Amino acid sequence: MDYYRISAQDLGKDAKIPVVKLGDSGEVFYEIAMEMINTIKAHNEKGEKTVFICPVGPVGQYPVFVRLVNRDRISLKHCWFINMDEYLNDDDTYISKDSPLSFRGFMERTVYTQVDPELLMPPEQRIFPDPADPGKVDRLIEELGGVDIAFGGIGINGHLAFNESREDMTAEQFAAQGTRALSLNPETRTANAIGDRCGAIDAMPSRAVTIGIKQILGARKVRLGVFREWHRSVVRQAAYGEVTAHFPASLLQNHPDAIIFTNALAAGQPF
After folding, report:
1. Which residues contact 214 (CB under 8 A, 6 or more apart)?
2. 270 occurs within a structural domain
3. What is the pLDDT of residues 124-166, one digit of tens each?
4. Does a structural domain hold residue 47?
5. What b/e sequence results for 60-78 when a residue is b if at least 16 CB atoms lie within 10 Å of its CB, and e otherwise?
6. CA distance 103 to 144
7. In the predicted model, what is the mean pLDDT of the chain?
8. pTM of the prediction?
9. In a domain, 138, yes or no
């Protein structure tokens, strides 16, 4: 695990996933927002649709995105935003949209109600994976001709969306997984509880529905943002470690157009 000792200066050299080092977190969010804006504008000019896989984490790109959409009058009418995941109750129904943990509620409050209505895409183009029919979103992506860009972050155990680390699968088996409901690993619940529940692990949902790793890896581009101190280890393992189901983000080493944006904090040397 010598990659943990790669300095901030050397991070990105000979990386198996390109790493773009930026300054503060605002720069990371701005780069992601501009990837969204520029892709939509280019497709609109050609009369083409735009299909994104969208996260709720990172989220700092959305206020920038909304401001630019409204300011520059960028139509989202031909955009499909397919969100990565959502927390579930123990019976595999969505948690309430009113919950502060709800990703559906977050997108409604932060994006969809903030975009000028005349620019906003219709509700049927704002998609979340359905725990009652997990394959529905996979079929939709095929019908739409694939995903233009999958945006996201990297979890503490390398997960993309809620595609959790697995010790019982090969990388190839893991990469073939589609959208599904699943139980969350203790590491994920703990890390998320720190930011979302003031450390109350038992107050975190134990189930979630997640878009498949197959759908993320199948996107034409993947753009990830990392910005926390613990991302120092995560970004190095993703970009330099072994490709394995033990650390899902490592599978992006085989992707033709994946980039990790990191701020100065996350670029720092772990130890």
Report:
1. 138, 175, 176, 177, 178
2. no
3. 999 999 999 999 999 999 999 999 999 999 999 999 999 999 9
4. yes
5. bbbebbbebbeeeebebee
6. 23
7. 97
8. 0.96
9. yes
Q: Which two tokens stand for residue 249?
A: 């983000």
Q: Give residue 16's domain range.
A: 2-265
Average pLDDT in the 227-235 region? 97
**pLDDT, mean of residues 75-94:** 98
What burial class does residue 130 get, using C-beta atoms within 10 Å of its C-beta: 0-12 exposed, 13-18 middle, 19+ buried?
A: middle
**How many domains is the chain built from?**
1
Tokens of 33: 């927002």
Tokens of 172: 């190839």
Whose tokens are 């203790």? That residue is 186
Contacts of 211 (CB under 8 A, 6+ apart): 53, 82, 83, 84, 85, 129, 137, 161, 179
CATH of the domain at 160: 3.40.50.1360
Average pLDDT over residues 238-258: 98
* Domain-located, residue 271: no
CB 29 within 8 A of CB 61: yes
Q: At 78, list the tokens.
A: 């031909």
In terms of Cβ atoms closer than 10 Å to its own Cβ (0-12, 13-18, 19+), residue 228 is: middle
Helices (H), the chain: 25-46, 61-72, 103-107, 135-144, 171-175, 186-196, 213-217, 231-240, 264-267
Please check whether residue 218 is in contact with residue 186, taking contact to mean a CB–CB distance below 8 angstroms: no
Peptide bond into 205 cis (omega under 30): no
Q: How far apart are the first and last CA of the chain?
A: 11
Q: How sure is the predictor about 1, in pLDDT bands with cuts at 50, 70 and 90? A: confident
Residues in the chain: 271
Distance of CA 99 to the CA centre of its chain: 20
